[in-house]
Design a protein that fits this description.
- This protein has helices spanning 10-23, 74-90, 104-113; strands at 26-30, 41-42, 49-50, 54-58, 61-67, 94-99, 120-123.
- The protein is an alpha/beta fold and 124 residues long.
- The chain has a single domain, classed as Trna Endonuclease, Chain: A, domain 1 (3-Layer(aba) Sandwich), CATH 3.40.1350.
- A hairpin with a 2-residue loop joins β4 and β5 (61-67).
């Protein structure tokens, strides 16, 4: 989810965190009050910061999660996902997308647009 949508989707973010806790993820960092913020990456030459929505660990491996919810700026969302996917491949992390009911079609269309077929989708 992009920065402009953070205030609109706080409920979905908290539901995702509790879902991941129930699955056994630990050391959860989230871009939300009450949690430590994950590492942010700055795009050189602009004022864009890319911060994953959730970063957690399970069985010694780091996982990066991003919420896939309808957005007014899908182009910015696509570039964020491509960056996070590339980062996770370079550092041997796992990149996953979390989506909720009503956002499946939007998510699948974006995944097809940017050929991100290797990313697993968690449906809550």
């Amino acid at each position: 989810m992009i920065t402009q949508d953070k205030s609109k989707y706080t409920l979905e973010l908290s539901q995702s965190i509790s879902y991941l806790e129930n699955l056994g993820y630990s050391n959860i960092k989230a871009d939300m009050e009450g949690y430590e913020s994950p590492k942010s990456y700055h795009k050189k030459g602009s004022d864009i910061d890319v911060t994953p929505d959730i970063v957690a660990e399970k069985e010694g491996r780091k996982h990066i999660f991003d919420l896939s919810l309808k957005s007014q700026k899908p182009r910015l969302l696509k570039s964020k996902w491509l960056f996070l996917n590339t980062l996770s491949q370079l550092k041997s992390y796992r990149f996953r997308l979390i989506t909720t009911r009503g956002h499946y079609k939007f998510t699948n269309e974006i995944i097809e647009d940017i050929n991100l077929d290797t990313v697993k989708l968690l449906k809550i």
